[in-house]
Amino acid sequence: MHHEALQEALPGDNVGFNVKNVAVKDLKRGYVASNSKDDPAKEAANFTAQVIIMNHPGQIGNGYAPVLDCHTSHIAVKFAEILTKIDRRSGKELEKEPKFLKNGDAGFVKMVPSKPMVVETFSDYPPLGRFAVRDMRQTVAVGVIKSVEKKDPSGAKVTKSAAKKGGK
């Protein structure tokens, strides 16, 4: 499988590839490659996720800023707003806009990344839609992304060939 030329890669395949006209120093951990003509990757302004608190010594409230590990990204996010507290098993809403979540609780949270980050809903792209929340050198929560509000990609870097094809 390694160092083997392939005509096509399917979802879930782990592949390496070369990109013309892009320097290695311009690429960073967490970048996402996508088809510019078919649902291109875009930076997330914020996203709503279903989160289960597993291992936090206190309470998690609005403004909490841990590190989110999603695909290969490790980026600080802010729990901007805890929207609801839900029953872990049934998914039924228990409380609207709770003040905090604690160990064993589950809820829907609006999160805002501190740096540019590409995420997708778990239902559309599972590898880009599941995450772990880390703080104090341990995993404190896990979750899946339910919805994403994307930023306008006007400042995004585009390769010359993609720009040419987009102009046709």
UniProtKB/TrEMBL annotation:
The keyword Protein biosynthesis applies. It holds the Pfam family GTP-eEF1A_C. This is GTP-eEF1A C-terminal domain-containing protein. Residues 46-146 form the GTP-eEF1A C-terminal domain. Gene3D superfamilies: Translation factors (2.40.30.10). It comes from Corchorus capsularis. It comes from the Eukaryota. Keywords: Elongation factor, GTP-binding, Nucleotide-binding, Protein biosynthesis. Belongs to the TRAFAC class translation factor GTPase superfamily. Classic translation factor GTPase family. EF-Tu/EF-1A subfamily. GO terms for molecular function: GTP binding; translation elongation factor activity. InterPro entries: GTP-eEF1A_C, Transl_B-barrel_sf, Transl_elong_EF1A/Init_IF2_C.
